Amino acid sequence: MREIVTIQIGNYANFIGSHFWNFQDELLGLAESPESDQVFKNHSLDMDVLYRTGETQQGLFTYTPRMVSVNFQGSLGSVSSRGSLYNQIQAKNMDVMTWKGRVTTHASEPLRRNLFLQSLSEEEQEIVGKTNDLDNVNNNSPAEIQDKDIVECLESDVQYWTDFSKVHYHPQSLYELSGLWADIQELDNYGFGKEAFCGHQHGEEIDDRLRFFVEECDHIQGIQCIVDDAGGFSGVSAMFLESIADEYPNVPVLLYNARNPSLHMDSKGLKQAISHYLHDAVSFSRLSELCKLIIPVGLPSLSGSRASQFLCIKDEKPYHSSAVYASAMHSFTLPFRMKQSGPSAESLYTSGALDMYGTVQMLAGQMRQNMVTILDVAIPAPSVSDRAQQSFLGNLQPLISDILEDVEDFHAVETMNIHGAVTSGNQRASINEVKDAVESAYDYSVARPKFSHLSASTCPLPIPLPFPLIFGNMVGQHGELLETPISGSSSMGSLEVHSIPMATRLRSSTAVLPFLERKLGNLRRFGIERGAVGAPLLQSWGFGKDEVEDMGEVLSKMVTTLKPYQYSSDSD
């Protein structure tokens, strides 16, 4: 087994992570359910890659994500930072070394759990009752909570990422940054996050939590890190990733750099805009140095993008947009946990398994020394029937802006994953049908990449109950794209759509040049050039002139890698 440890840093990153783990939990449940589709029972995925086994003090078996979450204090809502499996009692620390007087504790009332979390609690109590032969006891519980009420409750009021999480976490997983509360407004730039992290003992405490999960791995294949890149958490992430690079130099880190589209909706003055531009450049430059592959996601308007042509997204709701980014993350990481067949054996359910190291080498290694990849997604993926093959590649849309379209790049490298595909008559497509469809699509394509790797799985993306109402009325029950819209429904969720086919593509291409050039241009204009108006701001973030020029050099090298001989290596 080749284990992966997951890190989620920042509020929006944890929204994405919550959906991601819901997908995994749904797969686990469907694999064991006698009523579920055979495609979920035979998914040929090794869930141990992401999960760890354990045991409580009472001797109960546990199966929890191998994950460390970092967020504001108070960001867990009604959920305890110790989780609910191990029932550890938090020690009350009443020692105040500089104060000899009386100490008073003010405790706020715990937040009330929403309908979804109440329903989970009731299900668990019911299971415990049956285990202890208590199911004949008088049942005075309130009326059963209906799925429809849960969906409506979540759609109208999600404040915390834990509000829709259906997963049990290990006590070492959930870390809150003491002293930084969830309603803080100042943590909006790289400098503040860096200062907040360095001013406490957070580094050692988070390192210990990560070490707990890494050291129990037999053969770790890598660390996947989701970062909320929009504010100070990118500074927190950089400090944490520096420590990881020092302690685990041979473990590849794949960075999923995410940005909430609702932040683009806020109007900004000139001063805020300059701070925003500099934050973007500094954050991207620093984080890219601390990973092997960086995957930026974050459209200014996900709802208005072509990636959402079959969706009904509300950009102001992180609950909505994070579901799309989590779906894409589940899809492109699926090859990391595909069960390997023997050298001469062919699986009926999966093909093209990759590990994280292989993906990094393919996209950022010897073929092309470019570590910034574009993530394209088709959600849901179209049919792979003969008449749809010509437009199949055109349905893959990027999840970042400033991307060149229809660019001819004869050195492009990509890896694609398609899972749960359907063919004519909405039948499940076989692995060979998927391979043939992709090959045919490339035959119709104007330009073909220098190298392309295809992974495929017959298992679609399962839609768990707490998934938002984001599917449009052209999406059927199994994610098939309909010819006529469903009447009387503008948006649908898990009650109407049970699973969807997905396609994602990671590509190393010159199409990303405008994205990189914009960051480099803003850093030079506002932070490096003589008399740059943002230089004092960067200094207040703790960066001297030489450090800023070094960051410009990092961005410049990214550009010259894709556009040789046009940019000098000088940063001025």
From TrEMBL:
Gene3D superfamilies: Tubulin/FtsZ, GTPase domain. Residues 2-121 form the Misato Segment II tubulin-like domain. Residues 156-337 form the DML1/Misato tubulin domain. The keyword Cell wall biogenesis/degradation does not apply. Keywords: Cytoplasm, Cytoskeleton, Mitochondrion. GO terms for cellular component: cytoskeleton; mitochondrion. PANTHER family: MITOCHONDRIAL DISTRIBUTION REGULATOR MISATO, PROTEIN MISATO HOMOLOG 1. This is Protein misato homolog 1.
